[in-house]
Amino acid sequence: ASFRSGGTTPRSQAELRDYLRESMSNLIASEQKEITINGDLFDSFSVEPAEVIKTYEILAKWLGDTGSTLNLIQGNHDWNPRGDKTSSFHLLAFFLQNRFFSQVQVFDEGFDRITSGVYCIPHMPNQAAFDAEIKIAQDFDTEGESRFLTLHCNYKNGHTEYSDHSLNLSSEQVEQLMLAGWTLIIGHE
User: Fold this and answer.
1) Beta strands 112-115 and 168-169, pairing class
2) Most exposed among 43, 45, 79, 187, judged by the fewest C-beta atoms under 10 Å?
3) Ordered per-residue pLDDT tens for the chain, 189 residues
4) Alpha carbons 27 and 109: distance in angstroms, whole number
């Protein structure tokens, strides 16, 4: 007898992971310049080490073949409020940065520039910290360059309004960011 959880079996879960990894590999194979992963590369804080290794192999091959840049933005599954454990995301990032140095950038501390005209706000420890970073972005002058802002959050989600695990962007914040000239790219949802 097989164990079932949420309509899946261990075998179907493994098949789905294999399919998603293969899809990612096929997707990045055509990109020769730069890739940005906007949080939650893994769907939990800690995954099986084999998943980290397989993902490392895909990304390392791409980085080695292309000499391109990989930008990794922290999502809510990549962060722990206690800060006493290392996420699978940060473990993967450590190994990639150790081998590929400046080709791999990790964004996990607040409003930051990814590349010309592209900025990000990763998952923050709580809604107040996220709101403070949004305010920095609203007031930031990019001196005439195009303005894209990647975020890892929900948009107008009443279920996460008071949850620090899954941050929320309000319609008022979106309006203010757009008035400031930002084009928003929202991951997580």
Assistant:
1) unpaired
2) 43
3) 434 456 678 888 888 888 989 999 999 999 989 999 999 998 899 999 999 999 999 999 999 999 999 999 999 999 887 778 999 999 999 999 999 999 999 999 999 999 989 999 999 999 999 999 999 999 998 777 779 999 999 998 766 555 656 799 999 999 999 999 999 999 876
4) 28
- The two structure tokens encoding residue 37: 């992963």
pTM of the model: 0.88
| Euclidean distance between CA atoms 89 and 93, whole angstroms | 6
* Under 8 Å between Cβ of 130 and 153: yes
- CB of 137 within 8 A of CB of 119? yes
Locus of tokens 């996460």: 160
Q: How many CB atoms lie within 10 A of CB 30?
A: 6
Report the distance separating Cα 42 and Cα 49, nearest Å. Answer: 12
Residue 96: its H or E element: helix 88-100
User: What's the distance, CA 118 to chain centroid?
Assistant: 14
State the Cα–Cα distance between residues 176 and 158, nearest whole angstrom.
20
The SS3 call for residue 151 is strand
With residues binned 3-state (H G I as helix, E B as strand, rest as coil), the percentages for the chain, rounded to 5, are 45, 20, 35
162 and 128 in contact (C-beta within 8 Å)? Answer: no
Provide the 8-state DSSP code for 81.
T
Place of tokens 């990989």: 70
